[in-house]
Amino acid sequence: MTTQFKTLFTVTIAHAYYRQRCEDVAFIIPADTVQLLRNGKLLAKESEGRLTLLFEAAEANQGGSALRPMPGRTVRIGLRLLNPFFSNITKVDQSFASLKLLYGNVGAPAVLDVPTKVQLVGDLFSHALTDDARPVTVTLRDKAGMALQTDEVTAAVDRPAISYDLTGVAPSAYLIDELFPDGLTRNPYYSDAELVQAGVFGLMEVKIDAGFYTTPPDFQIVFEAREETLKYYVVAHNYGETEFNQLTVSDAGAVEDERPPIQFVKRSADAFTEDEISPASLTAGTGRVVLFKSDAVVARTNKARKKIQLRKNDEVLIAHLPQPQPEKTNADLIIPVSKP
Q1: Before 135, cis peptide (omega within 30)?
Q2: Backbone φ, ψ for residue 194 (5° rounding)
Q3: Shared-domain flag, residues 110 and 252
């Protein structure tokens, strides 16, 4: 008897910063899902930024179907960052550091829904009330909407937070509803002590559809590259005024790189704003400073842009100006030039 495995589904991380694959994310399989995989004769394989779930199938002469199909069961997967500079290269909002992204396939079996933001907590946690108005009715609900705990908080018997104990309850998504006099506030939570310990930034709940066994979907988790104004602070030493005024930054590589050209605006030191580096801190009293900044935001990329050049009239002083590296939190680049 020959054992064979077929693909049930794949999960791919796509990031516009990278030309090809993104390997910034590790896939964490929690203990309950490990047991589910065993029960369903499934294997999880991770390689080059992709997770593949495989199912054991009968031999071809026996139809090649799954030995133990599990339609309707949910596979949970944690997502942990491997790149400590991920936020520098990725378009994320301020909540990325505190809230977690929850992906699912509720809307269509073979497509991931737009992720929701949840607070990831352990078995024991407290919910801080989001408003001082009283009275407020606070209700913990499971993902089906069933009320699990209800608390009434009044001005006479006030408290700033409600505590919960989900010890022994399977990891899952929850809602904490706060019914204030002026309306309802909903707070999404997800309880999973193991994934809290793993330090994930997000998680997936993939409900297995019967169609996966014949047409395996490729779920895409997509990130956009961070966009920012590209700024070149040119610090010139031993340049006379005429030569200094001849300095320019231009983009001569757009056609070769097959990308839109970047236009740069020249700004003298006396016109710097509060958002720009102080000229005095760049020169320490010597030299001249001029800023060349892109007239529109530019997406970060790990592919170096060619021929963004510093010139003095027609003379190329620097053929390829640097791009912001992942460890930089901004696109402020200091370019020193000097003459003997």
Answers
A1: yes
A2: -65, -45
A3: no
Report in angstroms the alpha-carbon separations of 209 from 9, 138, 231.
10, 35, 50
Find the domain containing 8 and state its range: 4-121+193-223
3-state secondary structure of 2: coil
Please count the other Cβ atoms lying within 10 Å of the Cβ belonging to residue 12. 16
pTM of the model: 0.93
Regarding whether 268 and 169 lie in a shared domain, the answer is no
What is the phi-psi region of residue 25: left when phi exceeds 0, alpha when psi lies from -120 to 50, beta otherwise? beta
Per-residue pLDDT at 62:
72
Q: Are residues 38 and 175 in the same domain?
A: no
70 exposure class (CB count in 10 Å sphere: 0-12, 13-18, 19+)? buried
Beta bridge partners of 221: 13
What does the pLDDT read at residue 1? 57
Ranges under pLDDT 50 in the chain: none
| Pair (110, 201) in one structural domain | yes
- Provide the domain count of the chain: 3
Residue entry with tokens 């407290």:
126
**CA 150 to CA 139: how far, in whole Å?**
4
pLDDT tens track for 232-280? 999 999 999 999 999 999 999 999 999 999 999 999 999 999 999 999 9
Residues 77 and 139 in one domain: no
CA–CA separation, 167 and 178 (whole Å): 23
Tokens representing 303 are 């592919």
Q: Where are the alpha helices (DSSP H) in 51-132?
A: 86-89
The model's pLDDT over 24-39, given as tens digits with 9 standing for 90+, comes to 999 999 999 999 999 9
**Tokens 């009968």 appear where?**
58
Type and span of the H or E element at 51? strand 50-57
Q: Look at residue 61 in the predicted model and tell me its pLDDT.
A: 64
DSSP H or E segment with residue 13: strand 4-15
Domain shared by 107 and 145, yes or no: no
